[in-house]
């Protein structure tokens, strides 16, 4: 299927009619971090399955619904459940969520994700404000015919993770009981976790955390000029750091363990956006 402006617009128009209003902030929640959705007041919930031209969530720990409402006095739309390359979607399909959010009228995009800590100074439960990313795998959500309504064929990635938003995130992090860092997110296509040798290579090349999401969304946001903040929850030390196998249970357990303070933090962040 070829995606045109109308493809995305049909999904956005459907949602705007359901919501009856435009959100200011779009939030995409990562694995095990869906709890935040319970913070949305006066929620209008639309399952992904009802949205024309949208995708279906298959990943573990992802609910699969779009929730519109208010958090800390701000109108938000929250995607509880995101889409990943490892689920079998093409990179082109992975442009859909952020382009639809853009057409809903959001002015800021907030991404959260679960990631493995490559930087050995980080600990499980710490938060990394993403300063930049590295994606050495082939493919891009912007590959194929350019949709000019969103942005130009070739586009800059120099300030994809908006500097002012990162400064705000780190400043508010000082008031949180959680430990904050700022670092580089490495995109792994998954679904396998990395090998210990891959993690040593990622570390040598400048990656601080590794995960299987966020980068396709960040590329789509950069293309359409959407201010972006991405927060990675270190759910585990990356492969080979500790003498134990990685499991998705550990990822979900760590995410759950910091649910309370992380939710409080994101709420405070939204109040200040
Ligand atoms: N690697 C890749 N993705 C992840 C990890 C990891 O260690 N932890 C959570 N998501």
Structural summary, described in words:
This protein has 273 residues and is of the alpha/beta class. It has one domain: Nucleoside phosphorylase domain (Rossmann fold, 3-Layer(aba) Sandwich). It is 28% helix and 24% strand. It is built from seven helices and nine strands; from the N terminus they run αββββαββαβαβαβαα. α4 links the parallel β7 (180-187) and β8 (209-211). It is globular and about 50 Å long. Hypoxanthine binds at residues 114-116, 188, 193-194, 210-212, 235-236, 238, 246, 251.
Which residues form runs of ≥5 with pLDDT under 50? none
Q: Under the CATH scheme, which architecture would be assigned?
A: 3-Layer(aba) Sandwich
Indicate the structural class.
alpha/beta
What pattern of helices and strands is seen along the backbone? HEEEEHEEHEHEHEHH
Lateral arrangement of strands in the main beta sheet? 5-8-7-6-9
Name the CATH homologous superfamily: Nucleoside phosphorylase domain
Estimate the mean pLDDT confidence.
94
Shape: globular
What is bound: which ligands? hypoxanthine
| The level-1 CATH class | Alpha Beta
Give structural attributes:
273 residues; 9 strands; Rossmann fold; globular; 5-stranded mixed barrel; alpha/beta; 28% helix
What order do the helices and strands come in, and which of them pair?
Layout: H1 5-19, E1 25-29, E2 41-47, E3 65-71, E4 74-80, H2 96-104, E5 108-117, E6 127-134, H3 163-173, E7 180-187, H4 196-205, E8 209-211, H5 215-223, E9 228-237, H6 248-257, H7 259-271
Helix pairs in contact: 1-2
The structure holds hypoxanthine.
